[in-house]
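#struct-help
A.M.: can someone run this one for me? Single chain, 262 residues.
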Amino acid sequence: MPATSADVAQAGAGPVLVLLHGGGPGVDAASNWAAVHSELSAEFRCLAPDLLGFGTRIIGAGTAGLRGPRAWARARAQQILALLDRHGLERAHLVGNSAAGGAAAVALLAMAPDRIGRAVLMGGAGTGPPPPAVPFYDEPTRESMRATLGRLVADESVHRELLDDLAGVRLEQALRPGAEEAFRSMFAHVADGPPPVDPATIVNPVLALHGERDRVSPVEVSERLVEALPHGRLAVVAGAGHWIHVDRPDEFRSLVGEFLSA
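D.P.: on it. Structure tokens below:
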């Protein structure tokens, strides 16, 4: 994945597509999109940034004082607008994964709809209830990381080698200075702060993708989201877990390509 800066990977030609990764502990853009990045780059000019609070952006500009999921989502939306400006891009499509990238995409659609063409939202885009406990950090071990990753796929036995390798990579990143503090602040309950985005105000076309066997967020979360979106539709991917792009990469690429090219 060739990089144009320390925190943004870029490849391909064609319509611009910004890939916004998920929000698990230790995640970064490169590892999140590895299963589909090369193929998507054959059709789109893909930008895959590390979102604020993760990867190369654990600490630094834009992260100070952020608490609660809505504040982080808005800050990441502003990060993507700055990314588009930096690359001289007026407009882009989005793929937003789960509670980090998906929530950032929703915030960006509300904040600057004229800068976005179409958007694909995965796994409910953070619109469901928060997790009952912060993943991994109460027991920050390789075994805990491996168990956390295992819940993201439909059948761990199919991806055992990938999950074992990824557990080591993400453990190292999750234990970097500032990573735990940032991650816990993303789940902090905040009484005030930015108001939630009303999906009914989003004017862009949206495709919600959800894995039939998602063990992180039930399909009903995406069903409720699509019901509220004026121009939304839902595709439930049979046999896929939360990581649709890992469990069903060919179907994922096909659904994304067809929707964004419509």
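A.M.: thanks! The CA atoms of residues 143 and 167 lie 8 Å apart.
D.P.: also worth noting: Confidence is low (pLDDT under 50) at residues 1-5.
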